[in-house]
Amino acid sequence: MPPDLDLRLVRYFTVVAERLSFARAAEELRVAQPSLSRQIRRLEDTLGVRLLERTSQGSRLTAAGAAFLPQAQRLLHAARQAVSTARAAAPARAITIGYADDLVITPAVRDLRHRHPDAHVRTSHLGSPDAGALLDRRVDALVIRTPLPIPADDLDVTVLRAESRVLLVPATHRLAGKESVTAADIAGESLVGCTGMDAAWTDFWRLEPRPDGNPAPLGPALAEAYEDKLEAVADGAVALVPAGDRRFSLRPGLTAVPVDDIEPCHVVVATRAADPNPLVAEFVTSATNLLGDRHARLT
After folding, report:
1. Most C-beta atoms within 10 A of its C-beta, which of 106, 256, 267, 295?
2. Do the Cβ atoms of 292 and 160 come closer than 8 Å?
3. What is the model's pLDDT at position 139?
4. Strands 141-145 and 94-100, how do they pair?
5. Residues forming beta bridges with residue 158, ordered by sequence position
6. pLDDT category of residue 297 using cuts at 50, 70 and 90
């Protein structure tokens, strides 16, 4: 009767065999070298053959080790496939919910956990530039503002609420004391742009093109993150920001002025189209009921 193989020991062997170095393998596996050597000896004892030999230049495979390596690699691959197949066939009971920037999703997450106490519900805070986590399957749902900084072709997007955009200026700016302004009032202003974002996203927040069709004037201020945008405004620049994002209120010397005649952004929940995980649809329901207009004060 063939011996029972411990897959953990088989994996340890393949890493050593592929690196031909106990030191590098131990570092990759995050185990101590003496412990790794003992585990390899356990595997050799189970098989009844010597798999590796230490030399002054490192390690080398014995004839038995060279013959065993491809079989071990196939065994580990088959084990991973078996796990994936089993998980895919089982009803999904786990979900990771992403939320961007300052948005709060606690009521919807709490409701989902209450309605599905046996489910594993994780949350993951992201910045807008990290929205690709949804496409990469690192999160299963994402609460974020539009325009989306990722392609929406294969996404289902549910609008939760609208948020107006406001002009953020330093307190000494000529428009700081206004009750509101129009797009015409800021036609000559160079709004802070963001680097590394989708063109549609950047154009939306730079009001590009301006309502009269002219291109937005270029300026020296660029920001990689929202906090950098606030720093640029504190230094004399101006920018459009969501009215609902109150992080700017923590910075002294900044003033938000409503802009009357430009379209708002929207807070949405985005998911991968036709996602079979039933918890995804359940979270969209919770978000719609608890994060929508009825539960958010719009400014």
Report:
1. 267
2. yes
3. 95
4. parallel
5. 269
6. very low
